[in-house]
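Q: Got a minute? One more chain.
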Amino acid sequence: MPGGYWAEGACCREAVLRELTGEDEVYLLEEGADWLPAQWATEALARCVVSLGKKTPATREVMRSLTVGDREALLLQLRRLNDGDWLPCVLRCPTPDCAKMMDLELKVSDLLLPPYAEQREVHVMTVDAGGDSFNVRFHLPTGSDQETAAVLAQSDLSAAEELLLRRCVEAVTGPDGAPVQEIPAVVRDKVPARMSELDSQAELTMRLVCPECGTVFTTIFDTATYVLEEIKARAHHLDREIHLLAYHYHWGPAEVLALSARRRRRHLELLADELAQERQG
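A: Always. Here it is, folded:
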């Protein structure tokens, strides 16, 4: 993880992950049909992150306590573990007169950032305001902050942004050192940008050029949404995979669902080879 999980004053940047199984995929699709991406990310990580370091179990609350950037990094690692490094994408040019579809090949390894140089659980910054200054104490947005704000954002985006800022800013002191109850406008302007600098893995912004019309535009790569769409795309194959493997291997559905997508594909490839040889013989 680029930032790391803090426990007992120490920062851990290592995590142990396992692949998504068929059972995980069914759960995340069926139970998570109405979840927002931030909520879906929590559930996916809680199921597939075994531990942080060697000791900390990956409970839902621990996954919610991670920064948005660390959660993004873990989801990217999970995607690579399940389906490899390449991330095929299809985007539409945002120019109305063009609107052509674009094929884009990304790599997980290109999207993952190295560990941040600054290791802190809580950050402090000084914001200048016309000769005066405010000292601001804040933490980076976590999964819990993101989930709470995302629910509100469905009805009021401005209110959600305000809520996120208030959750992350822990204290503001004025020029005289006294606590400031209402967050000053200059602090509202400066702190979000500083948060983005400190947790650059949190929002993966790509600058692209349409090969058809030459339009330059930016787009955000959201890993939770990408992985969920991949799972949805192969969901209709899952019943057939269960049928074929259960029929030929004499396994029960639960045994097939316990396999990862990669292992199911491997067994199906071996099965296809065996059946082809039987037909030829």
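A: The CA atoms of residues 263 and 269 lie 10 Å apart.
Q: Perfect, thanks.
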